[in-house]
Amino acid sequence: MPAYVIGEADIINPEAMKAYGPMIVAAVKKFGGKYLARGARPEVLEGGPAHNILIIEFDSAETARRWYASPEYQAAKAVRQGHSNLRLLLVNDHVKPPEPAS
């Protein structure tokens, strides 16, 4: 069952984040992840302000967890820390394909 890592990032220091981009893309690719959105600027329909959104699809929650724990991700995370605020969520339960149109 596919799993999704959903993140919201507030970039504080864009210049310092330049090295992070290639590192994180390589880490996602190594674990077979697929970006569905990266750096997307959401339109807020309800609630407070939002920041850049990312959505990564992995083949399973276990693969997503292995990606997160990997040395590649942890190295990228070390570059990012202090230069952005990031919230990451793993969504894997109750993800269902859309219902067919009647």
Produce a short descriptive summary.
The chain is α+β, with helices and mostly antiparallel strands and 102 residues long. It has helices at residues 20-30, 61-69, 71-80; strands at 3-11, 34-40, 52-58, 84-91.
Features:
102 residues; 4 strands; alpha+beta
Word description of this protein:
The protein has 102 residues and is α+β, with helices and mostly antiparallel strands. It has 3 helices and 4 strands. The protein has helices at residues 20-30, 61-69, 71-80; strands at residues 3-11, 34-40, 52-58, 84-91. A 4-stranded antiparallel sheet has the order 2-3-1-4. The longest helix has 11 residues, at 20-30. The mean pLDDT is 92.
Count of strand segments: 4
**What spatial order of strands do you see in the largest sheet?**
2-3-1-4
In this structure, how is the largest beta sheet organized?
4 strands, antiparallel
What overall form do the CA principal axes indicate? globular
**Total number of helices:** 3
Radius of gyration: 15 Å
Strand content: 25-35%
Distance between the termini: 25 Å
Structural class, please? alpha+beta
Q: List the secondary-structure elements in sequence, H or E.
A: EHEEHHE
Helix content: 25-40%
| Low-pLDDT residue spans | none
How do the strands and helices of this protein lay out in sequence?
Blueprint (H helix, E strand, L loop, with lengths): L2 E9 L8 H11 L3 E7 L11 E7 L2 H9 L1 H10 L3 E8 L11
Helix pairs in contact: 1-3
